[in-house]
Specification:
Number of strands: 16
CATH superfamily of the largest domain: Dihydrodipicolinate Reductase, domain 2
Shape: globular
CATH class of the largest domain: Alpha Beta
Helix content: 25-40%
CATH topology of the largest domain: Dihydrodipicolinate Reductase, domain 2
Strand content: 25-35%
Distance between the termini: 50 Å
């Protein structure tokens, strides 16, 4: 049995990233993963842009292509999975639509909404209806990062500090980094906030910040890059036994073990780095495996509205505190 899928939005993450997908590539988009997965079939797509929608429907062989979801209101129960891949400002509206269509699950792009507080009651309605919501914080499905989050204490010893670099908006891209940090290290709080850098979004600057966990004195540094120069997503974690660096968005994992210094007796230092390919490219298929299991047997989702709202709340606090400091911002 295949689960029918309705996708709202026909842009890059919906299918554009995989427009030239070969049989040797891991899919990066929803349509790419759905096309590869034996438990799902793409039944319908919605996008107001006719050219985008037609190209998407042709590329992915979608039988029903619509400019608006209005005509779907009377088709409650027709779709097992609803994928929300529309612009962020439409997420709250499309979540309400998805609830009315009574699917077995929803898979939403991050962030859940422009303002997380505005969807709290709506998410309660989803829970009451027993409709699980997956949120695409992709790295929660990357096998090597899941293993790191589970095993770092045994493999690397106590946590010492971390520094992560991102760009292109604290909520839009920084929330990926904050969610990854909380996945590995546990819940964080905002300790300090730096200036706002408007490097892409007019309303969502990149912002440097310090995070901390109540159970330890160590801090996590968020470093704001500048997408006008280049984009970056990296996280370097320091432990008692060495360092783990998640490079290139997760496509490379670099480790350095602590060794006795060959130069200064009595000192210890980090040894030479060793790199292996990361497994982030496997994440989208793993996400759809997880969603299939959630639909068929009630399996928990690796990334859901709870972790998504937690990360977004931290990022919204950082943004608000940065924007309140009018004299400490850099413009586009």
């Amino acid at each position: 049995m295949q689960h029918s899928v309705l996708i709202l939005g026909c842009g890059a993450i919906a299918g554009g990233y995989d427009a030239q997908l070969s049989t040797d590539d891991w899919p990066m988009s929803h349509a790419g993963a759905i096309a590869r997965h034996d438990r799902f079939t793409l039944a319908a797509c919605v996008d107001p842009d006719e050219e985008t929608r037609r190209a998407f429907a042709k590329r992915w062989r979608v039988p029903l292509s619509l400019p608006s979801p209005d005509t779907l209101i009377e088709q409650a129960g027709a779709f097992d999975l609803i994928v929300i891949a529309s612009p962020t400002e439409l997420h709250a509206e499309h979540l309400r639509l998805a609830l009315s269509l009574k699917p077995k699950a929803v898979f939403c792009e991050k962030p859940l909404a422009l303002d997380a507080k505005k969807v709290g009651g709506l998410l309660d309605d989803f829970r009451a209806a027993e409709i699980p919501i997956g949120v695409n914080y992709t790295r929660r499905w990357a096998p090597d990062l899941v293993e790191l989050a589970r095993d770092w204490r045994a493999a690397w010893g106590p946590f010492l500090s971390a520094a992560g670099t991102y760009a292109k908006g604290i909520v839009h891209n920084g929330s990926h980094l904050v969610d990854l940090i909380q996945m590995i290290l546990g819940p964080q709080s905002v300790y300090a906030v730096g200036p706002a850098v408007f490097d892409h979004w007019y309303d969502d600057p990149s912002v440097a910040a310090l995070l901390w966990h109540q159970s330890c004195a160590s801090t996590v540094h968020l470093i704001a890059g500048d997408a006008r120069a280049f984009t970056q997503f990296e996280l370097v974690l320091s432990f008692e036994k060495g360092e783990v660096a998640i490079r290139d968005g997760g496509r490379r994992i670099e480790t350095r073990r602590v060794i006795d210094s060959p130069h200064t007796p009595g000192y210890r230092q980090l040894g030479q780095p060793e790199s292996v390919p990361g497994r982030i490219d496997e994440a989208m298929m793993a996400a759809y495996d997880n969603i299939a299991a959630a639909i068929e047997s009630g399996a928990p989702l690796a990334s859901d509205s709870a972790n998504a709202l937690s990360a977004q709340a931290i990022c919204e606090e950082i943004r608000a505190r940065a924007l309140s400091r009018k004299d400490d911002q850099t413009g586009l």
